[in-house]
Amino acid sequence: MKLLQRFKSIRFVLTGWYTLILLAAFALFGFSVYIYLQHLQDAELSSNLMEETDWISRLVDVERGRMGAVQHLDSLSADVEERILEHFTLNPRNYVVILSSLGGDILYESEFGDTLLPTPSSLPPGRTVLTSFTGSRGINWRLASQRADPFMIQVAYTEETTEKVLHHLLSIFLVIAPVVLVFAVGGGWLMATVALRPIVDVTQRANRITVERLNERIPARPVPDEIGALIATMNDMIGRLQISFRKMKELFVSIAHELKTPLTIMKGEAEFALTSGLTPENAEQLVVSYLEEIARISRIVDDLLTIARADAGQLSIDHQPVDISLLLQDLYDDASILASDKHITVSYAPGVPAVVSGDASRLRQLFRALLTNAIQYTNEGGSVGITCLCDRHTLEISVRDTGIGIPRDDLQNIFEPFYRSQDARDRVKSGSGLGLSVARRIAEAHNGSIRVESTPGAGSCFTVRLPLQTGITPKR
Ligand code: ADP
Question: Are 415 and 436 in contact (CB under 8 A)?
Fold first, then answer.
């Protein structure tokens, strides 16, 4: 199994393809040369045969002219026979020449004349017809037959020479093939090694970048190639990891700090109660204080859980039709009571009744966080206004206050967990910095968004956009 996986590695695949392509190119080259040579030999053989037949025909014509009477020519003169013999003896090919009358009487027969030359089925006068046949001992012959009335000239060559040349060529190819194979495999392996070397290098360097060394980067390549793009992507990824790790560390520190404060208070109170003696009055005080601190811890833990679930895409939203006007009316009533202590005026402009598909308790949590902040960060005598607008598809709910506002530099961070502006820390000690983080995640889980506009010293306006559900009856 391991061996099989090894064969699937890039190195093997590259080598395999390289070998295959080289062998295919070699086979194509060999095949082309073979076919071309075969064709060439064939053409040469045929043209030789035609020439020889014509030569004999011309010779016999001269002889007939010399004799003066065609029909009485029943044998050739010794001179003509000598010339034919001499001509073909100089020809290196194995050959057969037969000159016969149409009746079948042999006028001349060369040395290997006993080879039976088949007569083509149709032989028009004056034309030379080329045929092939297999003679005795399986030898292949190429035959040119010409009817030069009242004679028939037949010249045949064996195809042995052609076959020998082709056979030699094939042998050469078969001997070279293993050498080509070795070169192909070696070349492929070398090519794969060279191509993969930068990747091996990148892997080694990437391996050295551990959690403790996330500030390091893989050196860029001098050429902008595919490996360069890979390095850039990996460096980007390491950069993002570095930011995530930093944020995670900061988050751990913040969590520890936030949980430590109530625990320290609880510990101090318990120690004080122990040293000063536990009376029924301070015991009750202690329990009340404990419950407050426990409630604070459990709020922090709940918010952290919500954030973690939302970031993992697991924030469960129980989608139901929610009448936002009704929900805001409830929240407005609560906020008015809360604001009355600071003489802050709260107003609500309901707009048209609007329904969104969502989780009523989560949406309540979102708007309560915005209203609580608005009241918390607004000075006595200020005002908080809730407005609700909608177009065909979107509902826009704004919570506007005339409070302390948010410094420009803090605006991009206030939705991060535990982030609080210095001004807010000075004014409200009890805040955890988790409210807006949770609010943003709830809005996003409802396919909505949240944005803020603020002028330090003049006030802030938080706007939540939610997709409107049309054709749904509000559930009251
Ligand atoms: P908390 O209110 O507990 O500090 P939040 O997450 O609700 O936490 O808010 C984060 C920070 O955003 C606050 O500490 C404050 O600096 C700023 N902020 C939020 N709402 C307002 C507001 N209405 N006016 C001014 N600052 C605000």
Answer: yes
